[in-house]
Structures are given as C-alpha cells and as structure tokens.
Amino acid sequence: MHSQSNKNIYPFWMLLPALAVYTVFTIVPVVISIALSFTDWNIERLYAPEWKGVSNFITLFQDDIFLRSIGNTLIFALFTTVLKTVGGLLLALALYKAFAGSGVLRAVFYAPCALSVTVVGVLFKSILANDGLLNYALSMVNLGGLATNWLAEYGTALGSTIVVESWMWAGFNMFIFISALQAVPKDLYEYAEIEGASKTVTFFKITLPLIAPAMTTVVTLSVSGGLKVFDIIYVLTNGGPGFDTQVLSTYTYQSFSLGLLGESSAATVILSLIVVTISFILNRYLVEKEVRL
Question: I need a labelling partner for 74 at 20 to 30 A (CA). Which of 66, 176, 186, 270 fits?
Fold first, then answer.
C-alpha cells in the first residue's frame, strides 16, 4: 500500500522543478507587475512607490497615443493572422504531397522564421528603402510612380511591417497544415473522386473539416503573436513614423524607458488582458466550429 502511494506521488515530484522555474520567472513577475500598476512607481520613486489606485489606467485611456497603439495592435493582429493563415494553407496545399524538390521548397519557405528578427529587419530595411530593391524593381516595370520610402511614410509603414511579419511566419504555419493534410485518409478523396465531386467541393466538404484542429492552432497562435508583437516593429520602425506603427508592446517599452514604471506596468496588464481575452474567446469559437464541421 505504501509503495503504491509513493508511485502516485512520484510524478508530482518530477513536476516540482518545472513548477518552481515557472513560478519564479512567470507567476511572480506577473503578480508584481499587477501590484505596481496601481502605484506611482517611477525612476524618481524607485524604492518608495505610493499607491495610486486606478489612476495609471485612467491616464492611459486618456492618452491618444495609447489608444492609437491599441488600434494599430488590433489591425496588425487581424491582417497578419489572415495573411499567415491563408499563405500557410496555400503553401501546404501545394507542397504536402511528395514530389521531386518538395523537400527543398518546404525548407525554403520555412527558412524565414528560423532567421533572427534583426537579420530580417536589416534585410527589409534595405529592400524597402527609397533606393531599395523594391523601388528599383518598380522602376524596371515602369511603375516608378509607386516608389516610396515604405517604412518611413504614413499609410505604408504599418502595411509594410504586416507584410514582413506574414512573410516571416507563413512557412511555420505551412508545416502545421502539412501535418494535418497528410493525416487526412486518402480513401476519402478516392471516394469523392468516384462520386464526381469537384476539387472545390472536396476541399470544403472533406479537407477543411478534417484540418479544422490545425486551423484552430494556427489562428490562435497567429492572433496571440500579432497582439504581442514587439521585435519586428522595433527593428523596422520603432513605432514610427510618428506613431503610425506604434503598438502596445512598443508603447510599453518606451514608457518604461522614460522611467514611467507604474504606467508601463499598467499598459502591460492591459495588453495581457487583451491577449488572454481575445485568444480565449477565439479559441472557444473555433473549437465549437470544429464540432459543427
């Protein structure tokens, strides 16, 4: 009896190191950040913050730049999710069947997400500059009138960062979809072909329902990643020009850099609530959709 009890407890002992690390590096910082968001903690009151209640949150929602950063974050998350999901699915549909060179093509399309964000940023800064490769290519096909400094102009900077982010991560989603497509039973396609079903009908009636769990994973990861975006924005534009590409993460970083530590903690709490709420609701909806499909 005693031996059986030890066997039941053993797995929990194995979890303790991981739980300890998670608690120290995740739970504790989150709790501290929430507590400090209600104080006037700043660079001048580094060791003696005073309780301010919800005044930091009121200040943030009265700040037009903060409200704009929320809008930019939502736009970025929406469009990158659509592009990464659709792009990843199209690549997967083209490459999930083995053929000569398919492995090389998969590696080529996956490669961008394995690159450092700094490398990607330097690469696209040169491509999208006034004298960059994109403007040169436009001039070569008599579209020089469209040339601009894509990362430094209002109206094009945010769209450019969206395209770069989507290019970088579509290959990652491609592999998730490839795994799902390869798991679809081949006899279902054979039966559909015998019945005379078109490729469009086969996709929507067989393929899409059976890869719905992969779609849920891809969309949830893409949305949460888009809402938390920092690195690619920081490297490409640092929130500029002006505040045209300012997102919640860069706003928080800049507030922290200015010594507004309590306010930046409040912005972090708001960002976390937005990410958790949207991701949870979206995941629940997609999971229920899987069942109906």
Answer: 176
Q: How far apart are the first and last CA of the chain?
A: 48
Question: Rounded distance, CA 41 to CA 47, Å?
Answer: 8
Q: 3-state class of 5 per DSSP?
A: helix
- pLDDT value for 161: 96
Q: Give the C-alpha separation, 132 to 138, whole Å.
A: 10
C-alpha 271/C-alpha 231 separation (Å) is 16
Supply the pLDDT for residue 245. Answer: 95
The residue with tokens 């200040």 is: 59
pTM, 2 dp: 0.91
Please state the separation of Cα 247 from the chain's center in Å. Answer: 13
Residue 274 CA to chain centroid, in angstroms?
13
Of 88, 99, 111, residue with least CA distance to 211: 88
Can you name the residues that pair with 39 across neighbouring β-strands?
Answer: 51
Pairwise CA distance, residues 59 & 66, whole Å: 10
For the chain, which residues score pLDDT lower than 70? Answer: 1-10, 291-293
Phi and psi dihedrals of 39, rounded to 5?
A: -125, 170
Amino acid occupying residue 204: F
Render pLDDT for 117-150 as a digit per residue (tens, 0 to 9): 999 999 999 999 988 999 999 999 988 888 999 9
pLDDT at 125: 93
Peptide bond between residue 29 and the one before it cis (omega within 30 degrees of 0): no
3-state secondary structure of 51: strand
CB 263, CB 255: distance < 8 Å: yes
Q: What's residue 60's pLDDT?
A: 95
Cα–Cα distance between 238 and 285 in angstroms, integer? 34
